[in-house]
Amino acid sequence: MNFSDRLAEKIILKKTPLCVGLDPRWESLPKSIRSKFADATPEAVAEAYLEFCSEVLDIVAPLVPVVKPQSAFFENCGPKGMEVLRKLLQHARSLGLITIMDNKRGDIASTATAYAEAVFGGQVGSHEYASWPADSMTVNPYLGFDAVEPFLKAARKVNGGIFLLVRTSNPGAKLFQDIESSGKPLYHHVAKSLAKWNEGHIGECGLGDAGAVVGATFPQEAAALRAEFPQIWFLVPGFGAQGGGLDEVRPSFREDGLGAIVNSSRGVTFPTSPDDPDWKSSIRKAALQSAQALGSLLKI
Amino acid sequence: MNFSDRLAEKIILKKTPLCVGLDPRWESLPKSIRSKFADATPEAVAEAYLEFCSEVLDIVAPLVPVVKPQSAFFENCGPKGMEVLRKLLQHARSLGLITIMDNKRGDIASTATAYAEAVFGGQVGSHEYASWPADSMTVNPYLGFDAVEPFLKAARKVNGGIFLLVRTSNPGAKLFQDIESSGKPLYHHVAKSLAKWNEGHIGECGLGDAGAVVGATFPQEAAALRAEFPQIWFLVPGFGAQGGGLDEVRPSFREDGLGAIVNSSRGVTFPTSPDDPDWKSSIRKAALQSAQALGSLLKI
Question: What is the nearest CA distance from A256 to chain B, expressed in angstroms?
């Protein structure tokens, strides 16, 4: 089954389009975990991330369809961090979760292929191998089609998908993404190309395997993109901690309630202070609450 | 001394603006190295990259000012690959080489900071740490100023620098980079912003610590950018294997011969076939040849 239909099926099964983001930060971890790694070397921090994020995965697996580890926070802990990231992706998959490797890669030719195969798998030496095995990854469009194509190719070989940056959620996104040409902003041109790259890869749910990152912080732009590109999945960051609420994410959904997955990181994984002795229950409660709130947008 | 002046000083000392790119590929490695890692697991491939690239660094260190490992090929070998990348960067620095971590990162807010500190160093747990310690790194501009700023900040704390993607060397670069607004292509708007971000950070050599990636495959565009932005360092990929020759890189230099570093990866590191028993001499010869050819562009 292609990525798009797998995603739709899992969203319908879990009755929510919530994606839980894993953006671990040492200073936000529960004190009961930090106290076990008191030396707090980069290796110890990585081990603490493994313990915390594994718990988070176990808690949210019955409640949500998708998880999205943010590569940067693991890269920050060196090689040990990357080993932990690999283990967490494997753990998420073993729990039946759909995974998005959020690493926003982008490069040309064989370099792009190497980045893509690090996620979707490929030949390394004499072995098939995927460094950070995931169902999908985020990709940066700046370098053009021949730089995005290797990601699409590697993804499609394993029924995976990509999410291309279209309209990011940061306040400064406009600087280049809003540069206007032929009456349309750059991000619109990117979305239009994306729609073309999706042709021939639309699933039974009516959406393609090449999705777009569209921030919740720009609901008007999201509404316009949604209207024009009904076959593109939106991955929507900016919900919760970054300021987007239900009203801000609503425009990213199609009439039938499909078409978007909404990410929440801090709001779900750090809902209380590090002192909370009952942090697991707090995470479960936060995940359930967000899952149900966003579930109300599904009309299936 | 700031990054820009360190770069200029090292180029003048070595009498060449050649940057050697480390883009290892298993199938291109000398057979004498591959035969030691016959099982060719991802870990073994990473070990082979370490042995090969360490030799390359030792060979080129007396001849060139700068080296640029390509992160993708190490990421492709998993956590062990990242450990090897870390060791190679440390080795390059111990040899006095200026290092560019070519990983084209780009993300927002605290995520960008995590990526930046993974290269330039920062607090991880209770320790100062840099996962992939380098003097500079490549950065993708798509997300805007608030996404580039954390890289500039982290770099400037340690007298490091960045190279922002402006005009990439791939044939398809035009798709978005040439989108025209107010009579100028997108990449020109990016370069203009970059010039602004350089203000107040111009070294004695007259160039700033925020450079631009400008492909040798687009010499006319490079000439126009050079004329308009005399204070921006250009990192020029596309020389050698990608088709650029001396005539193609010349427009990236200022009148005084400074202003650009030219990358060659395969041309220097894989000049002969994997069967070459004398591969070390072949690499030395190729490095020397490219260094001298490009050195002729310096007028100092």
Answer: 31
